[in-house]
Amino acid sequence: MKTYEVPQEITDANSLEQKLELLKHIGRSFSVYRIDCGSCNGCEIEIFAAITPMWDPERFGFKLVANPRHADILLCTGPVTRQMYYPLLRAYEAAPDPKLVVALGACGATGGIFYDAYSVLSGIDKIIPVDVYIPGCPPHPASIIYGLATALGIMEQKLQKVSFENDGEMPPLVEDSVLGNTLFERDLLVASKRLMSYVFGRKLYDKYLTALAKSENVKDTKAAKIAITEAIKTEIDPRYAECLGILHNDIYTQYVPCSEEDKISLHRVEWGQ
Amino acid sequence: MMKLLDITEKYGKATHKYPFEPYNVSANFRGKPSYIYDLCIGCAACGIACPSNAITVVFNDDKSKLVWEFDCGRCIFCGRCDEVCPTGAIRLSEEFELAVKFDKSALIQRGELDSQYCTVCNKPFAAKRLIKYSFECLSKANLGEKRLEESKNYLSICPTCKKTATASNFTSGKEMVIE
Amino acid sequence: MKCDKFIEALGAKIKILEVTRQYEDQVTALVELNDLPEAVRFLYYDMGGYLSTMIANDERSINKHYALYYALSMEGGKMFAGDEIAQDEKCFVTVKVLISPDSLTYPSVTPLVPACVWYEREAYDMFGLVAEGLPDKRRLVLSDDWPDDLFPLRKDAMDYRYRPDMKDHYSEPEYEFLRPEGSGIIDVPLGPLHVTADEPGHFRLFCDGDIIVDADYRLFYQHRGMEKLAENRMNYDQMGYLAERVCGICGYAHAIACIEAAEKAINLEIPARAQAIRIICSEIERLHSHLLNIGLACEVTGNYTAFMHIFRIREYSMKLAELVTGGRKTYGNVVMGGLRRDITGIEIKESLRILQIIDTQVDEVWDAVMEDKRQIKRWQGVGVLDKHVARDFSAVGPNIRGSGIKRDTRYDHPYDFFKQIQFDVAVVEGGDVFAREMVRYLELKSSVSIIRQCFELMPQTAIIVDPKFHIKPENFALAYVEAPRGENVHWIMQGSAQKVFRWRCRAATYNNWPSLRFQFRGNTIADAALIVCSLDPCYSCTERITVVDIKSKKSKILTNKDLKEFSKTLKNSPMKDLR
FRET pair for A262, CA 20 to 30 Å: which of A194, B73, C314, C496? Predict the structure, then answer.
């Protein structure tokens, strides 16, 4: 599909040397013009938040201007929609050379989650040449400040390309099962994730196994109950405490035959709390 | 008007000192995914779960390696890859300083895994590590010796050949007794 | 059961071909094509309903027709005290018709119910269904350079990735505006916005001297083709993330509504803890959105200090969101069957501390703003939304609550955990900007109280169901959520192969735009920016405005900066130097 070709005089005026020269001159005070090419406005709101007193980029010379003819840096967001393709080009040609173009957000960098929709031209660098990319959906205002600081040379770029090419062919280690059957650990992890979601469920899983390992005999139902009850009493967070009990009652009892009194009571009154 | 000025005086200067001092995000903030190559088994669960296809898991041109590739520019920082990974090879860190200048390839992370070839038709179908890992897990699951030996065989057969083998075993009436 | 009373009353007037029930409070009635306008009008005006959404669907692979669904929320007209349906009878009734693919026409409902105008225009844009008798037949959604005979949402029209060629940017196609009758009206040819492109959207005001007589607008600069994308590439787990990126301020409400529509279609009940946390997250979103809007309303009238203070308080609510969900704006914790991120005791403690800070500081700033008499005078009497206009166009959100009509989805159709929460609906009489900002302030206070109640009443269950449920192709359902801007309604018809068959996403502001031109009339140009801001469109859309003076036949193009400047300082009237 035929899209915009940058006119020769603009390409000539925007060579790398000239851009670096520009950066030297605008280091203490730079004008930014914002172009929204059909974004959902999450990035716009974060730019807005980045201008307010909590983040205050005016400390190092940032100034938002209302006209692309006054701009040094063009800050573009959004995967370019068909309708905004035309305004974007007009603004790009109106800005004086040399200029820097910053693509903000996942949509600006590559089209983001919309990269192949019919009404979108997947990313700003498919239309105009882009110099700085700031990933994020939307980027945290600290990320935006970091991005502008990197563009100006105040801070160093941290991200580098990483490529691993030597396969040692060793698979990850699989731990031995505590009860001699790895399906117990599998069911325990599934239940922890169902109770407390993957973020906290992993911690719950570790807490439970640590507590179980402290008992004298893992396969003895009475010793296991004492160990888990002890862990519940010393746990500060009430949600973890409750879920340790639920896990024990639901999963442990499936792998080691238990009677009703081996289950942990979830009423705190009975433990004297 | 005066009340507004009183409020200003009460709360003082509110600006964060970033970037001159580090900024601490909350615990469990969803930042850049970090890849641990040694734990990856090439199962492609992350590639299927990713809503924006930032992660791709495809064979290279001559199919000798399975290439896992992640493009941070397309990532939407949702954490689905973290959630579905069985070994913990990809976890979301708390990094938010991700801008790159002049060089878009700095956003890429990739890893290459050797391919496993099918013992029947000799075509590559998975990563070697995936087959070895599956075998390790099975060996801790209380299976009998003979069963474990049998599983070593069929783990190294590609899905197409497995289908053919099952169908032919079934139709030829062969029975196998495994303790 | 619910809805039966309305179906009986409808059946007495009009022949109903079939009635199906989707959920305990949702029923669909199939009627004949020619009875459509009368059926909708009867339910809307005579039985006290509001139009929630209208969905067009390509069902040729199911029953060889196209289908239209008009979903009405039966809650009472609410124009005066007592004009309301009983709480346990409120429900949704959908009127369905089938259109033959040979004729592709149907009788338009807009002459009888003005609220349908945008929906019918969009049905033409996306499917090519022509409404006979529709007064306004212009293209609504697709870009101006889109080929005329290509209708994207038809199943056989095109691949979802197909992109027609772009035109050269010096010969960009134009859009036709509706101008009022009268002598001396000027036609100013002018492209969509740009040079000061803040957020896309173009308005035209038609003025007599300093007073605005009428307005017209061209929107949908952000059409990205999400509905087609969802049908082709996304499965149910990924749709929540797509829906969240519809809007940058009320994204979470869209995510919840989208997933709940899919859940309701198969009658899936999610655990109580997941319901409570969904409510907590959506109320946090309401906090940040209302603070943003009140701040902007102050900034547009020149009160920079209040604007900066309100944004300083807003940062606390963003910190709260980051703590509870891991992200400042995209919370990303909704999946089918529950949630994928829990809240532990440590986070609850920290959240309560931040809520207390927000509560006290919002009170302080609001008192300070209310003391400022000049600020209040700029807000009073401006942009009045008349009750009858609001009733005719089915307005939603703080827009309609500021005009004295008590419409709130959390109260009319309680969803999720709201069945167990107590809260007051904020309703203020007056209809001007001041009333709307007052409604937003009262909602801020009640949001804080709702979050606290949820933290207390949250039970200790799991947060996601056992994934043993099955998708049922061709089941469909509505889901409704009260976003910061009003009622968000999503409609999903499930398809086979783990994807949706049709997803219709109706954002809240969609219902508010058609009545905006009535709010402009009689006000001065200086207040135009303020009126649009108080409507709270998904971020202020006052961009490039053309001012046309009917009497003198002259015009001038204003930029956003000029208009805001005039609004703040009341100097340099744009009516000088017209050419």
Answer: A194
Which residue, of A152, A173, A201, is where some domain finishes? A152
Residue B68 is assigned to a structural domain of this protein: yes
- pLDDT at res. A134: 93
Q: Does residue C291 contact residue C310 with C-beta atoms inside 8 Å?
A: yes
Instruction: Provide the pLDDT for residue C540.
Output: 32
* Closest Cβ opposite residue C345 in set A1, A119, A237: A237
Q: How far apart are CA C255 and CA C261, in angstroms?
A: 10
| CB proximity A161 to B under 8 Å | yes
C323·B26 Cβ contact <8 A:
yes
Give phi and psi for C396, each to the nearest 5.
-135, 170
SS3 C102: coil
Give yes or no: residues A118 and A189 share one domain.
no
The alpha carbon of residue C508 and the mean position of all alpha carbons in its chain are separated, in whole angstroms, by 1
- What is the domain range of residue A27? 8-152
Q: Which residues on A lie below 8 Å from C346 (Cβ)?
A: 237
Q: What angle do CA C322, C323, C329 make, to 5 degrees?
A: 20
Residues A143 and A260 in one domain: no
Does residue A161 fall inside a structural domain?
no
Task: Tell if the CB–CB gap between C223 and A81 is shorter than 8 Å.
Answer: yes
Is A94 part of any domain?
Answer: yes
What is the CATH classification number for the domain harbouring B50? 3.30.70.20
Are residues C38 and C132 in contact, defined by beta-carbon separation less than 8 angstroms? no
Read off the pLDDT of residues B58-99 as tens digits, 9 standing for 90 and up.
998 988 899 999 999 999 999 999 999 988 899 999 988 999
pLDDT band for position C321 (cuts 50, 70, 90) = very high
Q: Region C424-434: what's the mean pLDDT? A: 90
> Is residue A160 a part of any domain in this protein?
no
> What pLDDT does C551 receive?
53
| Placement of tokens 């049922």 in the chain | C472
Residues 282-321, chain C, touching A (beta carbon < 8 A): 292, 308, 311-312, 314-315, 318
pLDDT single digits (tens) A196-218? 888 899 999 999 999 888 888 88
Nearest-CB residue to B3 (from C238, C241, C368):
C368
For residues A74 and A121, state if they share a domain: yes
Share the mean pLDDT of chain A. Answer: 85
Question: How near does any CA of chain B get to the CA of C285, in Å?
Answer: 17
Chain B residues near residue A158 by CB distance under 8 angstroms: 95, 97-98
Residue B98 sits in which domain range? 16-171
Examine residue B122 and state whether it is found in any structural domain, yes or no: yes
The answer on A263 and A218 residing in a single domain is yes
| pLDDT higher than threshold 50 for residue C188 | no
What is the interface size between A and C, counted as CB pairs within 8 Å?
A: 201
- For residues A133 and A20, state if they share a domain: yes
CA atoms within 13 A on the CB side of A60: 19
Rounded-to-integer distance, Cα C562 and Cα C572, Å: 9
Partner residue facing B77 (CB), from C234, C319, C327: C327
Bridge pairing between strands A162-164 and B33-35: unpaired
Entry pTM:
0.89
Q: Taking CA atoms, what residue in A is nearest to C193? A: A87
> Which of A152, A173, A194 marks a domain boundary?
A152
Tell me the sheet residues that pair with C504. Answer: C491
| pLDDT tens-place string over residues B3-24 | 888 888 888 777 888 878 888 8
Q: Do the Cβ atoms of A250 and A234 come closer than 8 Å?
A: no
Q: How many domains does chain A have?
A: 2
Residue B66 lies in a domain: yes
Question: Is B81 among the domain residues?
Answer: yes
Question: What is the number of domains present in chain B?
Answer: 1
The answer to whether C271 contacts chain A (CB < 8 Å) is no
To test the contact with chain A by mutation, choose from C172, C175, C222 the residue with the greatest count of A C-beta atoms within 10 A, namely: C222
The alpha carbon of residue C345 is apart from the nearest alpha carbon of chain B, in Å, by 14
Q: Which of C142, C229, C561 sits opposite A117 (nearest CB)?
A: C229
Under 8 Å between Cβ of A145 and B18: yes
Residue C198 is nearest to which of A34, A195, A199, comparing CB atoms?
A34
A52 occurs within a structural domain: yes
Confidence at residue C187, expressed as pLDDT on a 0 to 100 scale: 34
pLDDT tens digits for range C203-227: 667 776 667 777 777 777 778 888 8
Distance from CA of residue C136 to its chain's centroid? 21
Question: Which subunits have 3 or more CB–CB pairs within 8 Å of chain B?
Answer: A, C
